[in-house]
Design brief:
22-stranded antiparallel β-barrel; mainly beta; single chain; 916 residues; Maltoporin, Chain A
Length: 916
C-alpha cells in the first residue's frame, strides 16, 4: 500500500509540495475535495492537485488571481486588464483546462459562494470572481481536475477549485510586499496581518483574523514600446507589412457628405486637407483615403490602477464531539480604467450655423447635391479620457456544525454569500441630449483642433459629461447543506464499505439596477442607444446525493455516486460518477473515473431582454449579403463606413437548453524511488448543447451563412439605420476535449543543499467545437479562432535549492506559439508596405505566427531568525517582451494579447514577513 504520506509526497507534489513523513502520528480522517466521505489522506481515485502554503510563498503571487492563473492546468480565463474597453469590469476568473469559467466551480472551505454581480447578459463573468478571495487568508488550494462532482453539484463540468482558509492558529504573522515592474509603472504594494487566538483542542475555542490591503498603480500603453500604437509594422517572409487599427472618429472630426437619393458619398478631414498630414495621435486612413484615423491605442491602460481591502475572520468552539464555527470574508476591489476619449457620430442639422459654415468648405468642388446631409465623426479629446471605476464588494458568511454523531461524521451549514458590483463614470463619457443641443446651437465645433474651442464650446463639452453611477448589479446565494458519512461494514477480504450522503438547498438571485441614463430614460450616453433593462431574477435548486465507497481489497476500491437536482426553471436532472483506484504495490497506483454533468445557463442568459452590447473588436467591410437582406424590409438601412467597428446587439433566450456533459479520466502514479515520483492523468469531456454567442468574425466573414445574426441599429447621433451584429445567447452545438496532466518530481541532497525539481505539464490532444448544432467542427488549438486561443501545451519547470538559511527557487513558464488572428483583404486590417514606407494595398493575412512565450522567475528567501524572513525575487527575470500579435478581439490593448502575456516585463519584488 502507498505509504500514508503518499498524499504529501505524490499528490501534493503535483504542485511542488514536499512534506516530511510523520509515521509515528495517527492520521485523522479528513474531507478531500471531490468526495463526501471522510478518510485518511491518500492518493484518491480522482485527480486532485494541491497548492500548499509553501507553494504560495514560492510563487511570489500577491493575489489569488495571480496564483491560480499561473497554473498549467488553468487557461482560458478572464484577466483583470480585460476591463480596459473589453467589458471585463474588473472580473478575474478561473477555467480548468480552458473548459470555461462558468463550468469551473470555485469554493471557499468547501462551500459555494455568490457569482460575480457584474456578469453580463451573455453569461460573461457568470462565475466566481477570484478578486473576492483574500490571498492572505488562504492556507492551501485543492484543484480537482475531474468534473461534475456529486458532492458539490454536477455543474462543475470542468472541475473544482477549493480554497481552504487558515484556521486554528494561535500565532500571528505580518507581511509587507512591494513589486516594481520595469520602468516603474504598475507598482504593487501589499500589507497583511494574520493573528489567531486559542487552541481548539486545548482551550476549546479558536478565533482568527486576517487583514490585507493592496494597491496597484497604473501602466499605460506609452510605457511599453510594443503597445503604444495601432499602426504596427512587421516582416513576414521578407516582405514588409503593417497592421492598421484606428478609428474613423477623429479630432478634428472627419466629415461625410451624403445624399441617399443620388448615392453621393464623400469623406474627408479638414486638417488633412489643409496640412497634408494628420495631427498627433492620428495617421492617414488606409481604408478611407482623404480621412484620418484616430490611434486610440495610444491612450489606453495596459494595467489599470486598483486597490483591494480584505478581511477574513473565523471563530470555532468545541462542544463535546462537535464543533460550531463561523467564517466571515469581506472584500472590496476597486479598479479604475482609462480608454481613449469618446467616439461620437453626429448629424449636423441642415440650416444650422455649423452646416452653413462648413458645407461650402467641404463641397468646394460643388459636386455634392443640394441639401446633402453633413455628418461629423468626432473624437472628444477636449472631454478627456473615458474613465470608469468598477467596484466589487463581496461578503461571505458560513455557519457550520461538524462532528460525530453515533457512527456518522456529519456537517451542517448555512451560507449567505453576496456580491455587489457598481460601475461609475468618473469623466470623459458624454450625454446625447446635451451633445445634440450643443450641435444645434453651434456652441461647440467638432471640426476644430483640440484646445481651440471657444469658451462657450468648452462649457458645452463640460456640460455634456456624465459623472456618477451608471449601473449597479448584485448577486446573492443562500444555501443550506447537510452532509454525512460513515463506515457501513467490513468485507471478508479485509476491505470495507463506506457511505456518504447529503442534501442541499440553494437560492441564486441576480439583480440589475441600471441608472436612468443606462436605461435610456430621457437621455443616453452619446452614440449609445442601449436601453439596459432592470431585472430581479432568481432560481432555486435543491439536490440530494449518495456516494458509496467499496474497498474490495486493500489494493482495490470502487466509488459510485448518484446525484439528483431539481431546478425551479429547468426541471430535474440525475447524474452519476463512478471511480476506481487500484494499487498493486506501494509504489504504483492506477485510477480512473466516469461521469455525467449538467449546467443550466445563468439567469440573465435566459431572461434578459434584447439590448445593445458594445461594438465589434475590429473594423469590417460591409457584409453585403446581410445588407441586402435587411434592405428588403427597410430600404433606408446602410452599412458603416469601411474599416469601422459594428454595433453588437444581444439578448437572453428563453429557448436555451442546459449543457449536458460526459467525462472520464484515467491516471497512473508511480514512486519507484523515494527521491522520484511522477504521474499522469488522461481526461476527456464531451459537452452537448454548449451555450454561447457566435463569434463576430464568423458572422462577418460569412454573412450569407449567418443572416439570422444581423439586425439594424438606429444611431442616436445621426439617426441613420445601420447594419448591426445580432449575437444572442444560443445553443451553438457540441464540444469535445481530450488532454493529459503530467507531473514529475525529483528530490535529492547534495554537498550544497537539498534540491527539488518539479515538472508540471498540461497537454491537449484535441479540442473541437461546433458553431451551430450539427454543423462543421472547428478548433482553436494553438490557433486564434472564434476570438480566442487554446494552448496545446502549458509547461512549468521549477527547481528549489535549500542551503542553510537560504532557499532559492527558479521557475520556467512556457506557452507555445500559435497562428494569429486571420484577415481577408476585405477586412482592410493588414497592408503591404511600399519601398518608400507608405502603405500599399490591403492584403489577406491568414498565417501570421505569434511566437512562443517563455519566462523565467527567480526567488530567494532568507530565514534571518525563527520569526523573520526576507524574500527577494523577480518575475520574468530576463525581461521577455510579450510576442507580437495582430489580434483585435477582446480588450483595447494592441500589439500583443494581454490575455496570454504579461505587460509588466521584468518585475522585482521584496517581501518581509514577521511571525509573532
Amino acid at each position: 500500500m502507498v505509504a500514508k504520506t503518499q498524499f504529501n509526497l505524490a499528490l501534493a507534489a503535483a504542485l511542488g509540495a514536499w512534506t516530511a513523513p510523520a509515521l509515528a502520528q495517527p492520521l485523522e480522517r479528513v474531507e478531500i475535495t471531490g468526495s463526501s466521505i471522510k478518510r485518511i489522506p491518500s492518493e484518491t481515485a480522482l485527480p486532485v492537485q494541491t497548492v500548499t502554503k509553501a507553494d504560495i510563498a514560492r510563487s511570489g503571487a500577491q493575489t489569488v488571481a495571480e496564483l491560480i492563473q499561473s497554473l498549467p492546468a488553468v487557461q482560458g480565463f478572464t484577466q483583470v486588464s480585460e476591463a480596459v474597453g473589453g467589458g471585463g469590469g474588473g472580473f478575474a476568473g478561473a477555467s480548468v483546462h480552458g473548459i470555461g469559467e462558468a463550468r469551473t466551480l470555485v469554493l471557499l472551505n468547501g462551500r459555494r459562494i455568490a457569482t460575480w454581480a457584474g456578469q453580463t447578459v451573455t453569461g460573461e463573468g457568470a462565475a466566481i470572481d477570484l478578486n473576492s478571495i483574500p490571498l492572505a487568508a488562504v492556507e492551501r488550494v485543492e484543484l480537482l481536475t475531474d468534473g461534475a462532482s456529486a458532492l458539490y453539484g454536477t455543474d462543475a463540468i470542468a472541475g473544482v477549485i477549493n480554497f481552504i482558509l487558515k484556521r486554528d492558529l494561535t500565532t500571528g504573522e505580518a507581511s509587507v510586499v512591494h513589486a516594481v515592474p520595469k520602468g516603474g509603472a504598475g507598482k504593487t504594494s501589499t500589507v497583511s496581518v494574520t493573528k489567531g487566538f486559542g487552541d481548539l483542542s486545548a482551550d476549546g475555542f479558536n478565533a482568527l483574523m486576517a487583514l490585507s490591503a493592496e494597491k496597484q498603480s497604473r501602466m499605460v500603453s506609452a510605457d511599453r514600446k510594443y503597445a503604444r500604437t495601432g499602426l504596427i509594422p512587421f516582416t513576414k517572409d521578407g516582405q514588409q507589412y503593417a497592421f492598421v487599427n484606428g478609428s474613423i472618429r477623429t479630432a478634428p472630426a472627419n466629415y461625410e457628405l451624403y445624399d441617399g437619393a443620388s448615392g453621393y458619398d464623400a469623406l474627408g478631414n479638414p486638417y488633412l486637407s489643409a496640412q497634408g498630414a494628420c495631427p498627433q495621435n492620428h495617421f492617414k486612413s488606409a481604408s478611407n483615403p482623404g480621412t484620418c484615423a484616430y490611434d486610440y491605442s495610444t491612450q489606453v491602460d495596459l494595467m489599470p490602477e486598483s486597490r483591494r481591502e480584505s478581511f477574513f475572520g473565523s471563530v470555532a468552539t468545541k462542544i463535546d464531539r462537535h464543533t460550531l464555527s463561523a467564517d466571515l470574508a469581506l472584500n472590496r476591489f476597486t479598479l479604475t480604467s482609462h480608454i481613449a476619449p469618446a467616439p461620437v457620430d453626429m448629424l449636423i442639422p441642415a440650416g444650422s450655423a455649423l452646416y452653413n459654415r462648413y458645407l461650402p468648405v467641404f463641397n468646394a468642388s460643388g459636386s455634392a447635391p443640394a441639401n446633402s446631409d453633413l455628418y461629423a465623426y468626432w473624437r472628444a479629446v477636449d472631454a478627456g479620457l473615458r474613465t470608469t471605476q468598477n467596484t466589487t464588494e463581496a461578503g461571505h458568511l458560513a455557519v457550520s456544525l461538524t462532528g460525530t454523531l453515533e457512527q456518522w461524521d456529519y456537517s451542517a451549514a448555512v451560507t449567505h454569500s453576496s456580491n455587489r458590483w457598481v460601475e461609475r463614470h468618473l469623466g470623459g463619457w458624454l450625454m446625447q441630449n446635451e451633445q445634440d443641443a450643443a450641435i444645434a446651437s453651434g456652441a461647440f465645433d467638432p471640426f476644430l483642433m483640440p484646445g481651440q474651442q471657444s469658451a462657450a464650446g468648452n462649457a458645452a463639452i463640460a456640460g455634456m459629461q456624465h459623472v456618477g453611477t451608471f449601473k449597479t448589479q448584485t448577486s446573492t446565494l443562500d444555501a443550506l447543506e447537510l452532509r454525512g458519512s460513515r463506515d457501513l461494514f467490513k468485507l471478508d477480504g479485509g476491505g470495507s464499505v463506506q457511505l456518504g450522503t447529503g442534501l442541499d438547498l440553494r437560492r441564486e438571485r441576480v439583480k440589475n439596477d441600471p441608472s436612468d441614463i443606462a436605461r435610456g430614460v430621457g437621455n443616453n450616453i452619446a452614440g449609445d442607444s442601449s436601453q439596459d433593462q432592470a431585472y430581479d431574477l432568481s432560481r432555486t435548486i435543491w439536490g440530494a446525493y449518495a456516494e458509496l465507497l467499496v474497498a474490495v481489497t486493500k489494493a482495490f476500491e470502487v466509488t459510485g455516486a448518484l446525484r439528483h437536482d431539481q431546478y425551479s426553471d429547468f426541471g430535474k436532472t440525475d447524474n452519476f460518477k463512478l471511480a476506481a483506484r487500484y494499487q498493486p504495490s506501494r509504489d504504483l497506483l492506477f485510477r480512473g473515473s466516469l461521469g455525467t454533468g449538467f449546467r443550466a445557463p445563468s439567469v440573465p442568459q435566459v431572461a434578459a431582454s434584447r439590448q445593445l452590447y458594445g461594438v465589434s473588436g475590429q473594423g469590417y467591410s460591409c457584409p453585403t449579403a446581410a445588407l441586402q437582406a435587411l434592405q428588403a424590409a427597410d430600404a433606408s438601412v446602410v452599412c458603416e463606413a469601411d474599416g469601422t467597428q459594428y454595433r453588437v446587439v444581444t439578448s437572453g433566450n428563453t429557448e436555451l437548453k442546459p449543457e449536458k456533459s460526459r467525462q472520464w479520466s484515467l491516471g497512473l502514479r508511480a514512486e519507484p524511488e523515494k527521491w522520484l515520483s511522477s504521474g499522469v492523468d488522461f481526461w476527456g469531456i464531451f459537452v452537448k448543447d454548449r451555450i454561447g454567442q457566435l463569434a463576430e468574425d464568423a458572422a462577418m466573414d460569412s454573412p450569407a451563412s449567418y443572416l439570422k445574426n444581423f439586425t439594424t441599429y438606429v444611431d442616436p447621433g445621426t439617426g441613420r439605420h445601420l447594419v448591426a451584429l445580432y449575437l444572442p445567447n444560443e445553443n451553438l452545438g457540441d464540444e469535445r476535449y481530450f488532454g493529459a496532466d503530467w507531473d514529475a518530481k525529483v528530490g535529492f541532497n547534495s554537498a550544497i543543499g537539498k534540491t527539488t525539481l518539479l515538472l508540471q505539464w498540461t497537454h491537449l490532444f484535441r479540442y473541437d467545437y461546433q458553431r451551430v448544432k450539427g454543423g462543421d467542427w472547428y478548433s482553436n488549438l494553438n490557433s486564434f479562432n472564434d476570438s480566442t486561443v487554446t494552448f496545446r501545451n502549458l509547461i512549468r519547470l521549477s527547481g528549489t535549492l535549500v542551503t542553510g538559511a537560504f532557499e532559492n527557487t527558479l521557475t520556467v513558464n512556457h506557452k507555445p506559439g500559435y497562428r494569429d488572428q486571420a484577415y481577408s483583404a476585405a477586412d482592410a486590417a493588414v497592408y503591404s508596405v511600399n519601398a518608400d514606407g507608405s502603405l500599399g494595398s490591403a492584403v489577406a493575412m491568414s498565417d501570421h505566427r505569434v511566437s512562443s512565450y517563455t519566462t523565467v522567475d527567480w526567488q530567494m528567501k532568507y530565514e534571518a531568525t525563527k520569526t523573520t524572513n526576507v524574500t527577494l525575487g523577480a518575475f520574468n527575470l530576463f525581461d521577455r517582451a510579450p510576442p507580437m500579435s495582430i489580434r483585435t478581439s477582446g480588450s483595447q490593448q494592441l500589439g500583443y494579447d494581454n490575455r496570454y502575456a504579461d505587460a509588466r516585463g521584468r518585475t522585482l519584488y521584496g517581501r518581509l514577513t514577521m511571525k509573532f
